[in-house]
Amino acid sequence: SHSNTINPTNGFHAIAGAGIQAIIHKATQGTGMVDSTYAARKVRALAMNILWGAYHFADKGDPVAQADHFISVTQGTPCRVLDWETDAMDYHGAVAFVNRIHAVSGRYPLLYSGSSFLTDQLHAQGITTPDTTTLSKCPLWLARYSKTPPVVPAAWPHGFTLWQYTSTGSVPGITGNVDRDQFNGDSAALKALFHA
Fold first, then answer.
1. Distance separating alpha carbons of residues 44 and 108, to the nearest angstrom
2. Lowest CB count within 10 Å: 12, 44, 57, 67, which one?
3. Cβ count near 53 (within 10 Å)
């Protein structure tokens, strides 16, 4: 996101040289905010053959309007993510958001959340199986800062797609701490996730 400082001259060259295969960057929040670095960084990352995805930080307000705002900013980016980590958006709002993304794009977005937060939200709705929530159609990206993989809620029987294992990682070309993630699959599957 804009909170990460990337070297303006050779940052993306260094990122690619370090073996980073993909970036998922903040694009929007709520119904009006656009990350000021999103568009320029997308161009630079793609020029270095780094896979590019976008996330929307869930906020208060109409979830369908939030989804439409996100879609308008991320045209041409098939890999989209709902970052749902606070109760500013409730469960029903999250469902409305992912359904809107699917209706417009034909794809469900990834769902990013913390293990404990997501488990608590599903438990409050009595959700224990995939057939009881539309959210289970979203590839799951879980945050758990640990050396061991996260416990995956039962609504995702095939496990997580991405695991954010630290918020204090380092990457050449980026100043300071950066989130690092592990993909649960091979390179071909990763590329499929980021392409239409």
1. 26
2. 44
3. 23
Residue 8's pLDDT is 87
Q: Tokens 């040289």 belong to which residue?
A: 17
Give per-10-residue mean pLDDT for the chain (196 aa): 92 96 98 97 96 98 98 97 97 98 98 95 94 96 93 93 97 96 96 91
For residue 106, the one-letter residue type is G
CB 155 within 8 A of CB 136: yes
